[in-house]
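Morning. Coffee machine broken again, so started the prediction first thing and wrote up yesterday's gels while waiting. Chain of 128 residues, entered below exactly as on the submission form.
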Amino acid sequence: MVSSFEHMILDVRDLDRSLEFYHGMLDLPIRRQDELDGHRIAYLKTGGTEILLVQQAPDEQVPGLERSQGLVINFRVQNLPQVARSLEQGQVPVLRGLEMAVWGERTILVADPDGYAVLLSEPVGTVH
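Came back before lunch.
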């Protein structure tokens, strides 16, 4: 039986490029980085969950691997309009533009460097 969600593992083509996105643009703290048998790994912390970015050894990479098939990673952010501007200036591919809801959630859907869909959302006031 599953008791808790511990971490998500993302297979990435270029660890440095992925760290530019997750750490540099989304501000996720890097807990540590390792290299093991040609595999480069970065451990990022977000709330109570950890994201492992894993760059396979060159001879183990699968060049045609489609990484965007249905997986969507959702992060809560503050000041989404500012975050969206920063991502657009950084030429991050926008899959669905900024939706400025007046209640519920504001959202923007972008692609990380490997094509994983990343939904950024910000709760906004409710209607009474």
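The longest helix spans residues 15-25. Going to sketch it on the whiteboard this afternoon.
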